[in-house]
Structure formats: C-alpha cells, structure tokens
Amino acid sequence: SAPSGPGGALKGAVAVKVRHILCEKQSKALEALSLIQAGEPFDKVAREVSEDKARQGGDLGWKTRKEVVASFADAAFALNVGEMTRQPVRTEFGYHLILCEGRK
User: Fold this and answer.
1) Stated pTM of the model
2) CA nearest to 19, candidates 70, 66, 92, 49
3) Cα→Cα distances 85→66, 90, Å
4) Residue 30 contacts by C-beta under 8 Å, 6 or more apart in sequence?
5) What is the structure's pLDDT at 20?
6) Architecture of domain 15-103
7) Of 3, 8, 17, 12, whose CA–CA distance to 81 is shortest?
8) In this model, does residue 45 exceed pLDDT 80?
9) What is the DSSP string of the chain?
10) Where does the PpiC domain lie (predicted)?
11) In this structure, what DSSP letter does residue 68 have?
12) E-assigned strands of 26-93?
C-alpha cells in the first residue's frame, strides 16, 4: 500500500487507544464481526474469540504508529473514537478487528 503522511486522513493523533480481536483465520474474524454487528459487546466477543492473550477484552491501551505493524496502524489511525474496522485487517499475525476508544 502507498505510504501515507503522519496521521493519515484524520490529523493530529499521535496515539490511539484500541481494542482488537485477533483471529488466525479470516472466517473466524468475519464470524466475530457478525456477532458484534448483531449487538454483542466488543470486549465479550474478544474474550471468547480472540487468539491474542490480551484477556481484558482485547484492550491494547494507547499505541503509537511505531508500536504496531503498518497495516494495523493505518487501519487504527483512520478510525474515529467509537468506530470499528468494517472488515478484518490482515497482518503477519492474522486478521484483526480493531475498535478505537480514544485519540490523542
């Protein structure tokens, strides 16, 4: 993907507070996505489905662009607070659903 300037589309954030759900298989990530879209809380789905060991409902806390892989950063920094990625994001670790809980 083409490199974007610092901050991407939304200016000003140097860090985002994110939760994620990590699945090895895309089908599992899509299953998690449909559960959330059906009204299940993100943190509950994260605890049940995510292969990450972040047991606090997928909470990763505050992350800068340099602390996460590029495709994850591009997706996370493009989100508004309270917004989730509409599709799983592919990284070397698997497929992530990312929820933005804060920007600073």
Assistant:
1) 0.86
2) 49
3) 20, 11
4) 88
5) 97
6) Roll (3.10)
7) 17
8) yes
9) -----TTTTS-S-SEEEEEEEEESSHHHHHHHHHHHHTT--HHHHHHHH--SS-TTTTEEEEEEGGGS-HHHHHHHHTPPTT-B-SSPEEETTEEEEEEEEEE-
10) 13-102
11) S
12) 59-64, 89-91
- How far CA 42 is from CA of 2, 5, 8, 48, 95, in Å, comes to 30, 30, 25, 10, 15
Cα 44 to Cα 66: distance, rounded to the nearest angstrom: 28
Percent helix, strand and coil across the chain, each to the nearest 5 = 30, 30, 40
Are 15 and 63 in contact, with CB atoms under 8 Å apart?
Answer: yes
Joined tokens for residue 4: 């974007």
Distance, C-alpha 56 to centroid of its chain: 14
Please report, for the chain, the start and end positions of each structural domain, with discontinuous segments joined by +. 15-103
pLDDT value of residue 56: 81
Paired tokens of 35: 């559960």
